[in-house]
């Protein structure tokens, strides 16, 4: 017996200092091959390599993890699912990275959850993926979802006390990125008056008149569409004098930083000047970018690999976007969680256990701190950009800053909306709102300029009270109408989403 105890003690002493855990991990990366996607695997692979090298080289806790990484083309569609099934015939992977396209991800995540395989994606940003208690239980989202982005709008609506919005989105009926983007906003702005407007870019000619018809009852216009459509709408709004502060215009442009500044309004046509003026009242919500010294090295190494691999079919492949960064951090997060799970006696096949350990934690990513919420979704930080320098037509540039055009930031981790020195409240205050309301009684009483002031005051007061009553009734009615309209729309949308998630993306078109 004492011998047994000393044997145990021996093992405890011997085993305790051995902190590295050795394990082979099969990783299946399912992403499109086509470099027109920001998250194509030729773009993402160098970042995953970098993470792998870093984990190995550190000589620390994670250096015993051997990642065997296999890249497969999802083609942003059904191929993603077929790949997973085909590859799993021989051997199921231990970890899946991707898919990023919504419809590809839906099928893969459902099957992976059923097979108890963790999935980490820097995409799959749609609101539906938040339902982790059932079909998407093994999904961890390493990049902020559209719902997280929408928090920026709830924060602004509270801050500026706006009440209504028109959501304008381009719907290609295929990947539907803008549909999903504004779906997030729609979900979170449930307590406000919301009207939605879809532009079916493939079928119809852009009818800006029709869009602007919907603007009149709203205060805020939130748009997600291609740069050309945004320009058309802004031009039309400018011609109708809707850009003089009586409406607030937003454009959501999360990933493509090359479309800011000149890229957004400049086309070299005769409308450039007008467009530049119109864009002076356009605000852009985008990702908050942070960098730290290490990031420079990462960025350079990724560029080197891209060049070495001879990826020539895209001009901005060397630039680090949210997806590239996300898939790098995905491998780190998995290593941390796997290591922790194995230390606690679980194996790499305990997908649920490893997934749980990736959620509700904060770790140091390649560009800064990454905070995962209790639902396995990353908390997001977003920036509000404006174009202040109308003369030069560029977004205001403040040197020494990486995000030079920013007037405010939203931090998802603590829900704070922080205005920066360049911020100007007037820009976000609705101008001439009350004036348009009182203009109507003014006009009808306009003849009484020379009459006795008492009569005017009395008449104005009476009218004002009548108008107030009238407007109260009217607003009330509008609110009710909107609400029922919205509820119907809600039902419609849910039905649509459910159908969508069953159908393949192409049959929905
Ligand atoms: C990649 O996608 C773009 C846009 O969808 C398409 O025009 C191009 O032909 C595709 N390239 C390949 C190699 O499939
Ligand atoms: C990014 O924006 C620029 C300018 O608007 C556009 O030419 C380019 O195609 C966009 N890239 C992607 C990947 O959307
Ligand atoms: C924008 O256009 C101005 C004037 O044409 C030019 O000087 C500037 O370099 C451009 N900026 C970018 C980022 O392209
Ligand atoms: C990045 O850092 C590593 C080691 O820290 C170094 O070997 C490498 O040369 C650096 N790369 C660049 C492009 O500076
Ligand atoms: C997240 O972790 C904190 C403590 O670190 C805990 O209080 C909280 O309940 C956890 N949340 C969830 C959803 O697990
Ligand atoms: C919220 O978090 C951000 C980033 O971590 C920090 O800069 C900011 O001061 C925080 N704000 C509040 C009110 O705690």
TrEMBL record:
Keywords of the record: Glycoprotein, Membrane, Receptor, Signal, Transmembrane, Transmembrane helix
SUPFAM superfamilies for the chain: Periplasmic binding protein-like I (SSF53822)
Signal sequence annotation: 1-20
GO CC terms in record: membrane
Alphabetical list of InterPro entries matching this protein: ANF_lig-bd_rcpt (IPR001828), ANP_Clearance_Receptor (IPR052612), ANPR/GUC (IPR001170), Peripla_BP_I (IPR028082)
Segments traversing the membrane: 447-472
Pfam families (UniProt xref): ANF_receptor (PF01094)
MF (Gene Ontology): natriuretic peptide receptor activity; peptide hormone binding
A GO biological-process term: signal transduction
Topology within the bilayer: Single-pass type I membrane protein
Subcellular localization, as worded in the UniProt entry: Membrane
Receptor ligand binding region domain sequence ranges: 44-388
Protein name: Natriuretic peptide receptor 3
Lineage of producing organism: Eukaryota, Metazoa, Chordata, Craniata, Vertebrata
């Amino acid at each position: 017996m004492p011998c047994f105890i000393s044997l145990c003690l021996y093992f405890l002493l011997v085993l305790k200092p051995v902190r590295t855990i050795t394990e082979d991990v099969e990783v299946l990366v399912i992403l499109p091959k086509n470099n027109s996607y920001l998250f194509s695997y030729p773009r993402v692979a160098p970042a995953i390599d970098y993470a792998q090298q870093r984990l190995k080289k550190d000589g620390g806790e994670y250096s015993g993890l051997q990642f065997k990484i296999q890249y497969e083309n999802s083609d942003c569609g059904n191929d993603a699912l077929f790949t997973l099934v085909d590859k799993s015939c021989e051997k199921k992977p231990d970890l899946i990275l991707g898919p990023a396209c919504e419809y590809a991800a839906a099928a893969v995540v459902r099957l992976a959850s059923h097979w108890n395989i963790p999935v980490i994606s820097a995409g799959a940003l749609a609101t539906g993926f938040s339902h982790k208690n059932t079909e998407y239980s093994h999904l961890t989202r390493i990049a902020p979802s559209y719902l997280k982005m929408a928090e920026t709008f709830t924060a602004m609506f509270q801050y500026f006390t706006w009440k209504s919005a028109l959501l304008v989105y381009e719907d290609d009926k295929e990947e539907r990125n803008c549909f999903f983007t504004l779906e997030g906003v729609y979900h979170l702005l449930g307590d406000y008056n919301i009207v939605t407007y879809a532009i079916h870019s493939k079928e119809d000619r852009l009818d800006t008149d029709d869009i602007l018809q919907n603007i009149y009852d709203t205060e805020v216009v939130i748009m997600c569409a291609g740069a050309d459509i945004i320009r058309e709408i802004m031009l039309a709004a400018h011609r109708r004098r809707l850009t003089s502060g009586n409406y607030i215009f937003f454009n959501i442009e999360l990933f493509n930083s090359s479309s800011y500044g000149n890229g957004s309004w400049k086309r070299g046509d005769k409308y450039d000047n007008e467009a530049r003026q119109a864009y002076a009242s356009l605000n852009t919500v985008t990702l908050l970018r942070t960098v730290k010294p290490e990031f420079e090295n990462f960025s350079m190494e990724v560029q080197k690999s891209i060049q070495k691999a001879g990826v020539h079919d895209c001009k901005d492949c060397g630039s680090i976007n949210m997806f590239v960064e996300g898939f790098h951090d995905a491998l780190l997060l998995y290593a941390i969680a796997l290591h922790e799970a194995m230390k606690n006696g679980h194996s790499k096949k305990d997908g649920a256990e490893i997934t749980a350990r990736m959620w509700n934690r904060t770790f140091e990513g390649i560009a800064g701190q990454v905070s995962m919420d209790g639902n396995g979704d990353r908390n997001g930080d977003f920036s509000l950009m404006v174009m202040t320098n109308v003369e030069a037509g560029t977004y205001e540039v403040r040197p020494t800053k990486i995000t030079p055009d920013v007037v405010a930031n939203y931090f998802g981790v603590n829900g704070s909306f922080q205005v920066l020195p360049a911020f100007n409240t007037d820009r976000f205050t609705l101008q001439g709102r009350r004036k348009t309301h009182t203009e109507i009684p003014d006009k009808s009483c306009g003849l009484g300029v020379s009459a006795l002031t008492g009569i005017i005051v009395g008449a104005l007061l009476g009218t004002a009270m009548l108008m107030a009553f009238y407007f109260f009734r009217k607003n009330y009615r509008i609110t009710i109408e909107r609400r029922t309209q919205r509820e119907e729309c809600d039902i419609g949308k849910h039905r649509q989403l459910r159908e969508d998630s069953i159908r393949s993306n192409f049959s929905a078109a």
